[in-house]
From TrEMBL:
The modification 4-aspartylphosphate is found at D58. Keywords: Phosphoprotein. Pfam families: Response_reg. This is Response regulatory domain-containing protein.
């Protein structure tokens, strides 16, 4: 992971390239260095290479589901914040967030598609401010 004084990094993981790219653009406008991938099978390698502080994750992707991706992120040493970004109903997204937290991940946000860009930007600003101040991030 990067140091608290460094520009925060975000990796968007979504099999829909347009959605992943949108999230990366929102993150860039919030002061993050942002990357995205549309193949969840590349998640662990990309996390190891990029060293993001935040990962956004779609829940329903072919080839590898979000829970498998979370396991691979943990094995790759990722200990940053997770933002769930999915078109699934609130009940599914909330259950996935609880499961991720039970497995030791920090879930810092939960967004339904189509993404409320302003709300996501505010959440990313909060995460960046907490990192810059060295404080703990709060969920939201």
């Amino acid at each position: 992971m990067t140091s608290p004084s460094a520009v925060p990094r975000l990796l968007a993981i979504d099999d829909d390239a347009d959605s992943a790219e949108l999230v990366a653009r929102v993150a860039a406008r919030a002061g993050f260095e942002a990357d995205w991938i549309a193949d969840p099978r590349l998640a662990a390698e990309t996390v190891s290479r990029v060293g993001p502080d935040v990962v956004t994750l779609d829940l329903c992707m072919p080839d590898l589901d979000a829970l498998d991706v979370l396991g691979e992120l943990r094995e790759a040493g990722f200990d940053g914040a997770i933002l769930i970004v999915s078109g699934q109903p609130d009940s599914i997204r909330n259950a996935a967030a609880r499961l991720a937290e039970a497995n030791g991940h920090e879930v810092a946000g939960n967004f339904r598609k189509p993404v409320d860009v302003a709300a996501m930007r505010r959440r990313l600003f909060d995460i960046a401010a907490a990192r810059a101040g060295g404080g703990a991030r709060s969920g939201g």
